[in-house]
Design a protein that fits this description.
431 residues, five-stranded mixed β-sheet, alpha+beta, globular, four-stranded antiparallel β-sheet
Length: 431
């Protein structure tokens, strides 16, 4: 059936092209215009009954994506099917299983850098797409290989210690703590006021990616440190920055809610939004879920300190859209991405529905669109540090997460935690 349709489309295109050429050689411009129109008509014919599939990592926008699929089909006639895997699931393992089964989604997500390498045989080059010129320059880095772009950055995100301004006020905290000693003082004031300082989570990705990255980002040269650890020339256990980082980890874990070992991501957000704790280590991606519970909650973002120096928020590209060249409809997938960032409907979803900080300068976003957390991150972006976990091979951060879960449960010591972080790297690198 697919071959029959392809033959029919080919015949239609050829017939229309011959008709266009019949206008004569002296009417070249007119013939080209006619040919373009006919080509577009053929493409519209080809779009009938087309379904493109997206294998989505971003659980926070799953509901909004369902709405977007309806809007996209209504405007273009192309169906978009979204399958979401994230949160507590191992997206990378599930994507590999999907591909191994013979299923080839048109679009999947990838963090870039080292994580992109296993998928280079599928990643479609997007350098020539019209929207590339509008990308914020740094957002291109994770998906750029030899000067060519192989993915669309999903958005810009940032995280830090999201805090409840009302609870801070109740505890008599009048200024944002910037250093670790100042943060410790704030914690004591919160406890004295009967307020739980931190809402922690047991999720491996929050612990093994976001929290560990605080130690990575505070290295004098994060990239060099990571390369040295992979090469066995440096270690977490002997690193002074990570020894200081442990003081921050202890402050959070020792002053979090009692059921932290059984608190998943959804529960963390729900409990924080309900005012059950004053702070949580999270980012602007939580805004939509918080608003569902209490849209009037007054929020801010603290920098994340590890010593007596001022801390910083952490900013990066959380994920990227990759067009799968081995899928049935890569051209339709590219058309969807273009629609997402250029059409008024698509841009509205990016800002108002997804609550994203856009990665493109051509998309405007107000505080009403993207929320208080994103605005607070933007205000501190001048001194922000980056995201570096994707410089490790796949599987390393999962090992980090498992070690952090053990430490959260007080099952291992500080030294043992650092040793396990080192082992997580070497177990993968030496394979």
């Amino acid at each position: 059936m697919k071959n029959w349709k392809a033959i029919l489309i080919f015949v239609i295109v050829c017939t229309l092209m011959i008709a266009g050429c019949g206008n004569g050689g002296n009417a070249a411009t007119g013939a080209e215009n006619k040919q373009t129109e006919n080509s577009s008509a053929a493409q519209e014919t080809a779009k009938k009954d087309v379904t493109i599939k997206m294998f989505n990592f971003k659980v926070e926008i799953a509901e909004a994506l369902d709405k977007l699929t309806e809007a996209y089909e209504q405007e273009t006639g192309v169906k978009l099917e979204v399958e979401t895997h994230g949160g507590g699931e191992d997206y990378g393992a599930l994507l590999k299983a999907e591909l191994a089964s013979g299923s080839e989604p048109e679009i999947f997500n990838n963090g870039g850098y080292v994580a992109l390498e296993p998928y280079m045989d599928r990643a479609t080059e997007l350098t020539g797409e019209a929207w590339v010129k509008d990308l914020i320059e740094t957002s291109k880095m994770p998906m750029t290989v030899d000067g060519k772009l192989y993915g669309m950055p999903m958005n810009i995100e940032g995280y830090g210690l999201v805090y409840n301004k009302k609870l801070f006020e109740q505890a008599g905290i009048t200024e944002e703590p910037k250093t670790l000693p100042q943060l410790k003082e704030a914690v004591e004031k919160l406890k004295a006021a009967g307020i739980t300082p931190f809402m922690a989570t047991n999720e491996w990705w929050s612990l093994g990616i976001h929290l560990v990255n605080v130690g990575l980002a505070n290295q004098p040269d994060p990239r060099q440190f990571i390369e040295d650890v992979k090469a066995g020339k440096a270690s977490f256990k002997d690193n002074e920055v990570f020894k200081q980082w442990l003081d921050l980890v202890d402050l959070i874990f020792n002053n979090a809610q009692k059921d932290k070992m059984t608190t998943d991501y959804a529960s963390q957000i729900a409990n924080f939004a309900a005012g059950k704790a004053a702070m949580m280590l999270q980012g602007n991606w939580t805004q939509g879920d918080i608003d569902k519970i209490d849209p009037d909650l007054q929020l801010g973002v603290l920098p994340v300190p590890i010593n007596d120096q001022e801390g910083k928020v952490l900013i990066g590209v959380p994920n990227n859209y990759v067009v799968n060249s081995k899928s049935a409809h890569p051209e339709e997938a590219k058309a969807f991405l273009n629609w997402l960032v250029t059409s008024e409907t698509g841009k509205k979803f990016v800002t108002k529905e997804f609550k994203f900080i856009p990665a493109l300068s051509s998309i405007e976003a107000t505080s009403e669109d993207i929320g208080q957390i994103a605005v607070a991150v933007q205000e501190k972006s001048d001194t922000a540090v980056g995201w570096f976990w994707d410089l490790f091979p796949d599987g390393v951060t999962q090992g980090f997460g498992a070690a952090m879960q053990e430490y959260l449960g007080a099952q291992i010591s500080r030294d043992q935690l650092l040793e396990k972080l080192d082992k997580s790297v070497q177990d993968i690198v030496q394979q």
